[in-house]
Structures are given as C-alpha cells and as structure tokens.
Amino acid sequence: MRIDVLTLFPELFETPLRTSLLGKAVEAGRLTVGVTNIRDFARDRHRTVDDEPFGGGAGMVMTCEPILAAVESLRGTNSCAHVVMLSPRGRPLTQPVVRELAAHKDLVLVCGRYEGVDERVVGLLHADEVSVGDYVLSGGELPALTLIEAMSRMLPGVVGKAESVDTDSFADGVLGPPQYTRPAEVAGVRVPEVLLSGHHGAIARWRRKEALRLTKERRPDLLGACTEQDAELLREIEADAAGPGRGE
Ligand SMILES: C[S@@+](CC[C@H](N)C(=O)[O-])C[C@H]1O[C@@H](n2cnc3c(N)ncnc32)[C@H](O)[C@@H]1O
C-alpha cells in the first residue's frame, strides 16, 4: 500500500514512521509513506500557504493552490484516486472505515492547520473527510498518523500473528476481552483460573463472554445482531448480573 501525506509539518512523521510495528512495515516495504510539505508548493517568496477568511472572522485558512499543486505533483507515483481530508467534520473513523480505507492500493491524506482548509479543496479533490473524534486538534497530522497506524495493522504480515488483529477490539463488532500475563498472582489478585487451565475451548468461551460483558457494560451501541452462541453467553451474563458471583 502507498500513502502520501500532505502536511505543513513533515517532521511530525519522522519518528512514528521509524518506530515499532509501523517502522517495521515501512522497512519491509509492506507500506510506503511519502510525506510532502505543502509549503514547497507555495508560489510567493514568503512561501505563504494561508490567508484571511472571506467574510472576516478569527484565524487563517489554508489556501487551495498549494494543496492542489502538491496533489498534482504526486501523479505518477500515486493514482490520487482517493484523497482523505482529516477534518473534525468528517465521518467518524471506526474499525470498518479503517478496513475500507486500507483496501485502497494508494491514498493521499491531507492534513489541515489553522482554521482549516478552503472548502473548495474538498470538492475539487472529491475528498473523503474523516474525523478521529468529536474534539478539535490543532492539525491533521496526529489524525493522519492514527489512520496510518490503524490501516497498517490490516496489511498482511504487519502484525506478527493475524490472530491478534482478529481478537482486537471492534474486529468483530465487540470490545476485546481483558488480557493477563505472569505472574499469576499480584498483590493477592489472581488471574481468572480458567486462563491457567490449558483448556483452549473453555478459554475461548471465557474470552468471548468477557468481551460481550464489557461491550454490554461500556458500549451497548456496538451490540447488533448476534450468533446463537453469543445470545446464550449474553443470557448467562444477565443471569450472572442478577445472581451472586461473576464469571466462571
Ligand atoms: C484547528 S483545526 C480546524 C477546526 C475547524 N475550524 C473546525 O471547527 O472544524 C485544524 C485542522 O486540524 C485537523 N483536525 C482537528 N481536529 C480533528 C479531528 N477531530 N479529526 C480529524 N482532523 C482534525 C483538521 O485537518 C483541521 O483542518
């Protein structure tokens, strides 16, 4: 997969693209990320990329021309067929959206700054506006990195065991189950005994039940139509809540 990022702060991408799984994905050539400085496409000697908003108001707005010229410069290495504009007004970034975007062979990500980007850029590039949440950051760089890292996990060979991705939160519409590691007891608190049993079937059932329990408690909005086995586990969860004790 190839991703080209357009930004006014290319340096923000240096360390994340060299670190951990993302760094390995880039090094192994599973993911190519090009970072282009929008300012390189400004036409005046001050390298101006912003201007005052028409109609007045606070702050500055990123102008169209440098962004459009930067996208043009990518043609040849990137089809520029799918341009994502990071924006708090975009569609929310969820795991299905990550999966959908990761299926593209190449993408262009545009990072805004200041009060945002001239609205015509979105229309002219048919940009897909994507938001990382209902809060406002100072720029699109961290949202772009969030999207890049989430997409990289979907690419074959990036996460060591594909199973880890399959059991991640949201992978199949529920939160992930709790995880424990050694030692089996810390400050008098033991890990659930079933995890020490070596009984793979019982462990898988416990994990699914705990994933459903957490989802029901914290994100009931995620629980849609469920399988017969999940329905049975949810009935058990309700019975557990009604009676004394919890879990196995
Ligand atoms: C200060 S924000 C502009 C906010 C804009 N005035 C508004 O109210 O929608 C500057 C840039 O940060 C990025 N940004 C801020 N919050 C974001 C979010 N939640 N998701 C994605 N991008 C965001 C966008 O690229 C945006 O153009």
Could you walk me through the main structural features you see in this protein, from its secondary elements to its overall organization?
This protein is an alpha/beta fold. The chain has two domains: 2-152, Alpha/beta knot (3-Layer(aba) Sandwich), CATH 3.40.1280; 171-242, Orthogonal Bundle (Trp Operon Repressor, Chain A), CATH 1.10.1270.20. It has eight helices and nine strands. It has helices spanning 20-27, 64-74, 95-102, 120-124, 141-152, 162-166, 200-218, 228-242; strands at residues 2-7, 32-37, 50-51, 61-62, 83-92, 106-111, 128-131, 185-186, 189-190. The radius of gyration is 23 Å and the shape is elongated. The protein starts with a strand and ends in a 6-residue tail after the last helix. The mean pLDDT is 95.
